[in-house]
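Apologies for my clumsy wording, but can you show me some protein sequence, whichever is easiest, together with the matching structure tokens, please?
=====
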Amino acid sequence: MNCYSSIAEIKEKIKPCIKYTDDTIEITDIKILREKVIDDLVWTAVFGNPEVKPFCYTLIHKIAQELGLIPSSIYDLYIAIGKGEISGFTVPAINVRGMAYDTARAIFRAANKLDVGVLILEIARSEMGYTNQPPEEYSSVILSAAIKEGYDMPIFLQGDHFQVNAKKYKEDPQKELESIKQIIKNSISAGFYNIDLDTSTLVDESKPNLDEQQKDNYTLAFQLTEYVRALQPKGIEINLGGEIGEIGTKNSTEEDLIAYMEGYNKLLPAGMKGITKLAIQTGTTHGGVPMPDGSIAKVKLDFDTIEKLTKLAREKYNLAGCVQHGASTLPAELFDKFPKVGTLEIHLATEFQNMIFDNPMFPKELKEEIYAYLMDKCKDERKPTDTDQQFIYKTRKKALGVFKKQLWSLDEPIRKSISEELQKKFEFLFDKLNVKNTKTLVKKYIKPVKIEIKFVGKPESKEKFEGAD
């Protein structure tokens, strides 16, 4: 792939397939666009100089809109689920971390093969930092992959775990709140019209009753809801989610859900749309728990909790349902159970990262370089009881941003091997989560709104992205 050095060069190179006039475009040869030009555009968007990146972001979004690949909110579909109009599937929300373009291409190939329209592509606040993927880059890469693979549906981009840092919030609440707001603002500007407001870190179980324990959680979630509603583009109802239990802690209860929702709804003024879903804790941990030999400990997932809380959320509060985090490393035989118990949405991340690093064709020399980097730069994160395998497993995600260019530059046969393996995994998940043949469903409930997206200036600094994995 080529990296263009100037806007003038880009305009010249796209002439065989795109007519560019006064900031408007006309696609004149879709074959040339897909076979060559989009690869160079996305490479320049990711690795080009600061002057050309914003132009590439904008151009990619314009091309995507012309092809019907419009960043959209899944709100209306979730409202229909909450009303009981549709059911029987669990929405996959996939965090694209490493080799983002190749990974996203594999997702869209699998989606095309199985006619999948109900599909979320997301990235968490922390992931934006350690993968070095600010919102504007992430959205551009996802859209480029959809363009490349001929996907033809609205694109649901989601800000996952836009999480409040409890320690920083305690030290300076306003500063931490403003930090979250800035990330929300940047993400909306980049086409993220689905956002998970994770204020669950503020739950304080030392308080005497459930309302007091959840009060900071639901109060700040409401404040961020207000902020989003004031900022969202005309014609778009951004889909919002809340969280009642921090992932990796004790399992959520019906009482927790009621305390959160009662407090949140009392603050919500008449006419303002609130959240449509709640993330709950059911026994999982982000990335799984590595054993001394590097294998992942078996998890006792509480499907009864998912089923009971989803039923309560729908019947009492008209929500679409509950969200399962930390699930990608679960045993394969569990995935078809999620639709059966009514799980609304499932977040999947670490396993795809593992499949990149553990592919038999992954270069040994690069892996050794990455692991040496982790041993040096992340040594302060190592627990005294960690074996090398445990430490590497827990920290290798931190190398994805630093080694991004090397990963994107792997020889084509290696990238093909990884991408094909990922595609098979996505096909498996789409089948088990029962989202096959859902393009018609999306077309029925989602009416995409074209919003002019134009990027200017330098990309957002990765140092501002912190929070949950």
Summary: The chain has 19 helices and ten strands.
